[in-house]
Amino acid sequence: MLNIAFIAHDRKKEEMVNFVIAYEHVFSPHRLYSTGTTGTRIMEQTKLSIHRFMSGPLGGDQQIGALVAQNEMDFIIFLRDPLMAQPHEPDIIALLRLCDVQGIPVATNVATAELLVKALERGDFGWRELVHKYKPGEPV
């Protein structure tokens, strides 16, 4: 069971909901997280249970980033709107930087998100389970 986060800027929320609907069967066995409104919209349209954090601009990106910093997040689908300036851009950049530091796969568009989901479906994320199994301080 992996930890997966969904984040979507306002003009990408509908695209995220449609994407998650299409792959609901792949996401259902995993622990799911999201920023506030994105998670609400997904739960309204699916049977998925999602732990929702605050809205991105109110700190939700940073809350997900805290899990990334602790190497507790396995991958993130973050549908960004590249054509709209975001007032919390520093938080977004910090989250993406943390993903790079920890080696957490992050998709920022549907094309890359689909590649990650297909890899998840094939079982290609076994290496993340090993990360959790052999986490420092955890019993082996």
Report on this model:
Keywords: Lyase. Substrate binds at residues 9, 13, 35-38, 55-56, 88. By secondary structure, the protein is an alpha/beta fold. It has seven helices and five strands, in the order βααβαβαβαβαα. The protein has a five-stranded parallel sheet, sandwiched between helices. Helix 1 (13-22) packs across helix 3 and helix 4 (60-69) runs parallel beside helix 5. The protein is globular and about 40 Å long. The two termini are 17 Å apart.
What tags apply to this protein structure?
140 residues, alpha/beta, 7 helices, 49% helix, 14% strand, MGS-like_dom
Short account of what is shown:
Catalyzes the formation of methylglyoxal from dihydroxyacetone phosphate. The chain has helices at 13-22, 24-27, 36-45, 60-69, 89-102, 110-122, 126-133, and strands at 3-8, 31-34, 50-52, 75-79, 106-107.
Distance between the termini: 17 Å
Instruction: Name the helicity range.
Output: 40-55%
Largest sheet: 5 strands, parallel
Question: How would you describe the shape?
Answer: globular
What kind of assembly state do the chains in view correspond to?
Answer: single chain
Describe the protein's topology.
Blueprint: E1 3-8, H1 13-22, H2 24-27, E2 31-34, H3 36-45, E3 50-52, H4 60-69, E4 75-79, H5 89-102, E5 106-107, H6 110-122, H7 126-133
Parallel strand pairs: 1-2, 1-4, 2-3, 4-5
Helix pairs in contact: 1-3, 4-5
